[in-house]
Design brief:
Strands 1-2-3 form a three-stranded antiparallel sheet. The protein is built from two helices and three strands, in the order αβββα.
């Protein structure tokens, strides 16, 4: 069989049988982490997403998880998240953001309550 025919045959097989991926969730991660703030930074080669837990009335917050993504994967994650939010809203109604237009979001949410002191 010529190489081009072999490669074409392999491509057809890939289309017919999607590859299966076995994903394992370690017990130490199965409960997940709570985050009510995400900060995103990027360079030319990567996006860094810090998932943070901010407690009302405290001046300090903790990064609970950091995820580093390639720009291409960041875009895939964004599209997947947009699709999931859309499906959620079609089943449960629109998610209303408090405090105005989300396009004008510039920083952490003000949780109110007493201001923490060091």
């Amino acid at each position: 069989m010529p190489l081009s025919a072999y490669l074409s045959h392999m491509e057809e097989d890939k289309k017919k049988k999607p590859a299966k991926l076995n994903i394992e969730l370690p017990e130490t991660m199965d409960g997940g982490v709570y985050s009510n703030l995400a900060l995103i930074n990027h360079s030319q080669t990567e996006f860094v997403v810090d998932f943070i837990q901010v407690m009302p009335g405290t001046p300090k917050a903790k990064v609970r998880a950091r995820v580093v993504l390639t720009p291409q994967h960041a875009k895939r994650v964004m599209k997947a998240l947009m699709g999931n939010v859309s499906r959620y809203e079609s089943q449960n109604g629109e998610i209303v953001l408090k405090g105005g237009d989300e396009a004008q979001y510039t920083g952490p949410v003000n949780f109110g309550g007493p201001q923490g002191e060091a």
